[in-house]
Amino acid sequence: MTTGDHVYRRHAHGHAHSHSHGHALDESVLRSRAGLRAVLASLGVLGATALVQAAIFGLSGSVALLADLIHNAGDALTAIPIGAAFLLRSRRAERWAGYAVVSVIFFSACVAAYESVVRLVNPRELDHLWAVAAAGAIGFAGNEVAAVIRLRAGRKLQSAALVADGQHARVDAIVSLGVVASALAVGLGVEIADPLIGLAITLLILRITWLSWRTVRAG
Questions:
Q1: 61 within 8 A of 54, measured Cβ to Cβ
Q2: Whole-prediction pTM
Q3: Cβ distance 72 to 50 under 8 Å?
Q4: Which of 159, 16, 22 lies closest to 83, judged by CA?
Q5: Which CATH number does the domain housing residue 37 bear?
Q6: Residue 185 has what DSSP assignment?
Q7: Rounded alpha-carbon distances, angstroms, from residue 113 to 70, 106, 152, 184, 195
Q8: For the chain, which terminus, N or C, has the lower number of CB atoms within 10 Å?
């Protein structure tokens, strides 16, 4: 082999090595950007949903709606650790973000349980039942949109944290329908249905906590 051939091969190897590292860097940056877009989009949807529900809760005082509102607000906040993990482009940070998501879900279950028990002990007449039903429908729509965004991105990017959060939002959509059921039941004269449905929502949130924990640990 001549000296020229040796120099050429070293140059080609160096170029290929540099190109492979550049390609890996590009993939990392693209993954980070895609993850951040999904997180911010779902944050916007759930944030708007929680604001509308908060306004309606101020009118009605429904504890079932409050349970859903607390959970939706907490769900929106889980975007912060996941977004930070994507910004850092760290798989390890994503896993810890997933654990943070699980912690927020569990905390929201505790708050919802407390408020439901308080309302059972001290019943309160509900107002604006039509608005409560509308809030439940809005919660369903907002969570379903957020679930689609998170699950699609999570599976594409192979992010257990995003998948867990997407599963969380999808079940939340079903939970929001409990608020509609509460409004209908109270409208029919079954006042105790509101705190009882609040407790049922709490149990569903606890189930979400367990499923999300398993998803993050397996990710």
A1: no
A2: 0.67
A3: yes
A4: 159
A5: 1.20.1510
A6: H
A7: 11, 11, 31, 21, 9
A8: N
* The Cα angle at residue 65 between residues 62 and 70, in degrees rounded to 5: 125
CA 65/CA 195 separation, integer angstroms: 10
Residue 71, burial from CB neighbour count under 10 angstroms (0-12, 13-18, 19+): buried
Residue 10's CB is within 10 A of a number of other CB atoms, namely 10
Q: 42-59: per-residue pLDDT in tens? A: 888 888 888 888 888 877
Q: Which amino acid is at 162?
A: L
pLDDT tens track for 127-151: 677 888 888 898 899 989 999 998 9
Chain centroid to CA 112:
17
* Residue whose entry in the numeric block shows the structure tokens 């050429």: 8
CA dihedral 188, 70, 83, 81 (to 10 degrees): -140
Residue 78 is classified by DSSP as: T
Domain of 68?
Answer: 3-218
